[in-house]
Amino acid sequence: MTTPAQARSFDAAAAVYAANRPSYPPALLDAVEELAGLRLAGSRVADVGAGTGLGTALLRARGARVTAVEPGDGMAAQLRRTLPGVPLVRGDGDRLPLRSGSCDLVTYAQAWHWTDPERSVPEARRVLRPGGALALWWNDSDATVPWVAAQDARLRHFFGAEETAAAQDGGGP
Asked: Quick one: 4-137 is in which CATH superfamily?
């Protein structure tokens, strides 16, 4: 589990993060609608760990009534600059500052790993209306793309993870 200080470590670089972080493909929200069994248009959504608002903006563009939940000062300030019309409440997934049964969907766009599931699961269940859904997603690298595989190899080498990966695969150092 991560600490609150780790979770807020992005605050100092919020503007750089917002300028350089990739967004999500439109097909992601199609999948969320299909798997959750709901239309985003008109749905009440809490985007927890909203950061600078990448997921929030996409949900809003689909017609969802989104409330961003963000604990970090820098990230919240960047979200307010980017999405001034979106309601923003300060809090985290372990203690959601939302009414019970107030949401059709609770989302975590690359933010679930900052929570303690023993607390965040009951909190998500509390704020979801009956029949509501929880959606978690991350951007993953596609190692079948040559430049991505090469970058991954460079990062593994830089951080000394080659030995760890080999040991986990049953190989030697």
From this structure: Vaccinia Virus protein VP39 (3.40.50.150)
